């Protein structure tokens, strides 16, 4: 049995526990032995992308120590998984011992949907949702981890779900982590264009694999008065599409 | 607002965002460019291999720059060219102005060259009292409007054709009767023709410097480079040293990538090789042929972890596909080169202190690298600049303290759990119907977007409680 450490991600922990519950449920259904290490917090991306390498290293060492005993580390986020998988080894370029540990962890780190499809050959059975949805490829997942085919393949096994292609799907939504805080007006102009494209699909649901991007798009759609509801793709695959969408927390 | 405040990146970007006319102009050009590039790449099964080869050719030249510089200089001299070296922008301009003065030039024609813009050549020629005629159609527009280029392929991209029609009517001797595009092009042609014929010196850039022949290659779609370089008595080429390639086949390998990435065409309308001055029996060509090889920070980039940036072919694909460029346009960047490649190069040319915003104003979505015909790791380079900015203490105190405090908390899981629980409880106080419409300290988000209400308890707290209930 694959022993999987679930990397919850700070956004799921704080804003959308349902995403992490969905990820844990899916991993169990795919035959994994799931654990949630208590020592985890954040992958350190805000420090890394701000240029604060020292703190990024400090945080990375903690993540490595907390997860290196598992067969796999799986995160419901292309962005956090990408940080561990691609950037941790770079962070320790000048530190051979930690570099080896970082590379070891990187080789076993995956984003949830691609892990289910590529490693577990899992696809949901008996999951139904009568709705139309459009899927946005979040950039880190798409370009750093090459996740494009897998979510569409898995979503095609959800009975009653109709996928509508999103125009200009490869364009970033303007979230960009600290970018949306540092340059809010540029970020807003970008997400406004994204929202126009999403609305043009007339889909019931917006799906994606990263909560940061989803919160950005859902927040913009809501402000524009759109009725399109946003879910993390893992929630739909886990059969939780009948629950509250992002921003519908009780 | 003081002048210094008005001239910050944020102020320029804000003004650009408020300019809907600008957005229309940007979208018209970049949308077509993206579609044409996509079609060109889709129709070229060997694109990915060609891209790898392109990157390898450039890397090879950059690693052996001294060798190819010497070879190029030797062969260019043998063809009758006069080769000059300029280490800085100022040196390069001085050399060009001196050549013009020695030739007793009154007017000079210039075909589009980003290197010329980089070294400030238009300004230097104006200062020297030389009559300057910009012959590229878009540069002509920019000159008429006393403007600056906003894109490296389409310098007048920020102007709509309606703006340009008005500009031509105001400035051309015999402007167009109707504002259809052929009539406007004909008007520009009438206007420029006299300039081409009267010029004493023609100045061009170079897309490739071919080491084994000493030839210089220029590509244009208007034929203006040919009229700039063949009619006047003197032809001056200004080129960055990274434009070197070993031989003609290498130039063609890169040319295929450059043109498809820039405009989606298979080849430019004009691809011209210039080798030495007019020879006995030649019908036309310049009497003197000067090549000014410009460093201007390039050699320094090798030692700064920016060597891969010297692969850049100046195709503009990165900016055409950049979500930030597409919202704010080229002028907001404040440097000569806009978009992702500009954000990497401007700190080299103007210093990081004045351009630190550029390296942060990027979502790191990676699309620029994906469409780059020579696979330049632009996002990694921008992150590299962020590291330098942090290490040099250029980041604002508020950001440093925020990241510092946050890192202190996330490296202490117990404290983090406590803080997370408090944070969501506080945030929930601001929520109505599941959403937060206004949030102190986060107005950047909530002034234009709603923020979702957090869950009642964090995942970690809920998960632990479930485990306890199950007696695990």
Automatic annotation (TrEMBL), chain A:
Domain of life: Bacteria
Keywords carried by this UniProt record: Signal
InterPro entries from the UniProt entry: Cys_rich_dom
GO cellular component terms listed in the entry, alphabetical order: cytosol
Protein name as annotated: L-lactate dehydrogenase complex protein LldE
Gene Ontology molecular-function annotations: oxidoreductase activity
Span of domain Cysteine-rich: 4-85, 134-217
Matching PANTHER family: LACTATE UTILIZATION PROTEIN A, UNCHARACTERIZED PROTEIN YKGE
Leader sequence segment: 1-22
Automatic annotation (TrEMBL), chain B:
SUPFAM superfamilies named in the record: alpha-helical ferredoxin, NagB/RpiA/CoA transferase-like
Residue ranges constituting the Lactate utilization protein B C-terminal domain according to the UniProt record: 404-466
Domain 4Fe-4S ferredoxin-type: 308-376
GO molecular function: 4 iron, 4 sulfur cluster binding
Listed GO biological process terms: lactate metabolic process
InterPro entries tied to this protein: 4Fe4S_Fe-S-bd, FTHF_cligase-like_sf, Helical_ferredxn, LUD_dom, LutB/LldF, LutB_C, NagB/RpiA_transferase-like
Annotated protein name in UniProt: L-lactate dehydrogenase complex protein LldF
Top-level taxonomy: Bacteria, Pseudomonadati, Pseudomonadota, Alphaproteobacteria, Hyphomicrobiales
């Amino acid at each position: 049995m694959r022993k999987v450490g679930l990397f919850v991600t700070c956004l799921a922990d704080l804003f959308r526990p349902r995403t992490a519950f969905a990820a844990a449920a899916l991993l169990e259904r795919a035959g994994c032995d799931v654990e949630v290490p208590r020592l985890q917090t954040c992958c350190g991306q805000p420090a890394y992308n701000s240029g604060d390498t020292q703190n990024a290293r400090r945080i990375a060492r903690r993540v490595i120590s907390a997860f290196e005993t598992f067969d796999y580390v799986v995160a419901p986020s292309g962005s956090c998984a990408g940080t561990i998988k691609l950037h941790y080894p770079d962070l320790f370029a000048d530190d051979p011992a930690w570099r080896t540990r970082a590379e070891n962890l990187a080789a076993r780190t995956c984003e949830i949907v691609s892990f289910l499809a590529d490693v577990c050959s899992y696809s949901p059975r008996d999951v139904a949702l009568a709705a139309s949805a459009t899927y946005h490829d979040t950039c880190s997942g798409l370009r750093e981890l090459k996740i494009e085919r897998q979510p569409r393949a898995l979503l095609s096994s959800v009975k009653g779900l109709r996928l509508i292609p999103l125009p200009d799907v490869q364009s970033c939504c303007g979230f960009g982590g600290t970018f949306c805080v540092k340059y809010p007006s540029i970020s807003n102009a970008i997400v406004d264009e994204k929202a126009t494209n999403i609305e043009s699909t007339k889909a019931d649901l917006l799906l994606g694999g990263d909560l940061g991007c989803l919160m950005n798009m859902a927040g913009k759609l809501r402000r524009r008065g759109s009725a399109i509801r946003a879910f993390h793709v893992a929630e739909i695959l886990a059969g939780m599409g009948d629950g509250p969408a992002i921003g519908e927390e009780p | 607002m003081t002048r210094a405040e008005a001239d910050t990146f944020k102020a320029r970007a804000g003004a650009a965002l408020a300019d809907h006319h600008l957005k229309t102009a940007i979208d018209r050009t970049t949308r077509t460019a993206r579609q044409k590039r996509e079609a060109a790449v889709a129709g070229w099964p060997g694109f990915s291999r060609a891209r790898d080869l392109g990157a390898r050719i450039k890397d090879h030249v950059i690693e052996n720059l001294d060798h190819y510089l010497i070879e190029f200089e030797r062969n260019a001299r043998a063809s009758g060219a006069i080769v000059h070296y300029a280490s800085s922008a100022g040196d390069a301009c001085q050399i060009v102005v001196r050549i013009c003065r020695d030739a007793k030039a009154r007017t000079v024609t210039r075909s589009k060259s980003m290197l010329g813009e980089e070294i400030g050549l238009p300004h230097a020629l104006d200062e020297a009292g030389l009559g300057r005629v910009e012959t590229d159609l878009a540069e002509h527009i920019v000159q008429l409007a006393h403007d600056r280029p906003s894109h490296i392929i389409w310098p007048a991209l920020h102007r709509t054709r309606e703006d340009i029609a008005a500009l031509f009517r105001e400035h051309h001797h015999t402007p167009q009767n109707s504002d259809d595009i052929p009539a406007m092009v004909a008007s520009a042609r009438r206007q420029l023709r006299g300039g081409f014929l009267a010029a004493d010196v023609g100045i061009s850039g170079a897309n490739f410097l071919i080491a084994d022949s000493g030839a210089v290659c220029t590509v244009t779609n208007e034929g203006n480079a040919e009229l700039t370089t063949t009619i006047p008595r003197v032809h001056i080429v200004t080129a960055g040293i990274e434009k070197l390639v070993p031989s003609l086949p290498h130039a063609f390998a890169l040319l295929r990538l450059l043109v498809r990435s820039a405009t989606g065409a298979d080849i430019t309308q004009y691809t011209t090789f210039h080798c030495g001055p007019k020879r006995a029996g030649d019908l036309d060509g310049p009497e003197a042929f000067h090549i000014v090889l410009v460093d201007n920070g390039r050699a320094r980039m090798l030692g700064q972890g920016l060597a891969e940036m010297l692969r850049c072919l100046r195709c503009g694909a990165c900016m055409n596909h950049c979500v930030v460029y597409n919202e704010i346009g080229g002028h907001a960047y404040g440097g000569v080169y806009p978009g992702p490649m500009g954000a990497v190069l401007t700190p080299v040319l103007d210093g990081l202190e004045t351009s630190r915003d550029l390296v942060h104003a990027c979502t790191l979505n990676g699309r620029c690298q994906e469409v780059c015909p020579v696979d330049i790791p632009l996002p990694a380079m921008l992150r590299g600049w962020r590291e330098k900015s942090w290490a040099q203490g250029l980041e604002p105190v508020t950001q440093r303290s925020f990241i510092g405090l946050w890192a202190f908390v996330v490296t202490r899981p117990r404290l983090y759990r406590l803080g997370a629980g408090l944070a969501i409880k506080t945030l929930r106080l601001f929520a109505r119907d599941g959403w937060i419409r206004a949030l102190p300290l986060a107005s950047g988000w909530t002034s234009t977007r709603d923020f979702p209400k957090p869950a009642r308890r964090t995942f970690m707290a809920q998960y632990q409680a479930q485990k306890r209930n199950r007696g695990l």
